Amino acid sequence: MKTQVTEKRLLSHSLILSILFSVIGVGAGLYTQSQMIMFDGLYSLLSVVLSYLSLASARFMSKNDWKKFPFGKSIVEPLVIIVKYSAILIMLGASVIGAVYAILTGGRPVDKDMALFYAIFSSLACLIMYLHLRRQSKKQHSGLLSAESSQWLFDTYTSFGVLVTFILVYVLDYFNVYPAYLNYIDPLIVLVTAASFAKVPFVSIRMAMKEVLGVSPEGELARNLDAMTKEMERKYKMKESFLRVTKRRKLLRVEIDFIVDEHSLVQTIKQQDAVREELEKKLHSIKTDKWITVAFTSNRKYAL
């Protein structure tokens, strides 16, 4: 419960700061006529909506609705992540279209001094917020805070993109280098930034889709669970075993079906419970919420 309270408090802070940055960014973008600053401001505006979505989902998940949701609400987190990153991809696509149009129509003149001041302020503020949320997401083991920190990481990249853009524009203008091309730098940086952002949303959506569909996890966790099941099968002379595993952010769901026969060392309810107790102890080292189901049957068809 303490973790959920901390999670909601941090998401509330993120929401308030996102509102502040969106207002400053959109206003600065309109004032300086910079597409890059407008991109930054619009992303912050999108972050407001997405941060509220994260906060609402955190509140929903913290409610005790066991009768309505007997298997928990772990699917909510990957669904929220899919919605959030899909919205980011749509915004990136719109920004690319706007930047291409600007390039084809002669670029955009920009107020360099104001843009440079905004870029320095925005870069530092976003970086501090990203590092804070990233540290807390690891401490709280929260997928929502991790997704929220990713949003601030995108904001940080955008702000540093703005900073690099206007340092470049300022230097070129000061030394009067390629003055005819200065108006194209702003939309070109928008294109580069949008392209660099695209990978993380695609990867995150793919991973979240696997969780929604219940795809078995891979890697060391899967290997350890399989080895543990086979060890128990041999130890208690089970005829066969079937392991099913899914993982959704903070919830690991494990289902093991053991096939027993007259030679198995598990014949009574007490012996079955002893096996369950041993399995629970072996899984204790995995630091996440767990839903463990262990069944025993002598008929193989009930395990398939």
Describe the SSE topology:
Layout: H1 2-32, H2 35-62, H3 76-104, H4 112-140, H5 143-174, H6 182-197, H7 199-213, H8 220-235, E1 240-248, E2 251-259, H9 269-283, E3 289-297
Parallel strand pairs: 2-3
Antiparallel strand pairs: 1-2
What is the mean pLDDT? 83
Poorly predicted runs of 5 or more residues: none
Category from helices, strands and their pairing: mainly alpha
Number of helices: 9
Distance between the termini: 37 Å
Task: Offer a few descriptive terms.
single chain, 304 residues, mainly alpha, 9 helices
Question: TL;DR of this structure?
Answer:
This protein is mainly α and 304 residues long. It is 69% helix and 9% strand.
Task: Give a description of the structure.
The chain is mainly α and 304 residues long. It has 9 helices and 3 strands; from the N terminus they run H-H-H-H-H-H-H-H-E-E-H-E. The chain has a 3-stranded mixed β-sheet with strand order 1-2-3. Helix 9 links the parallel strand 2 and strand 3. The two termini are 37 Å apart.
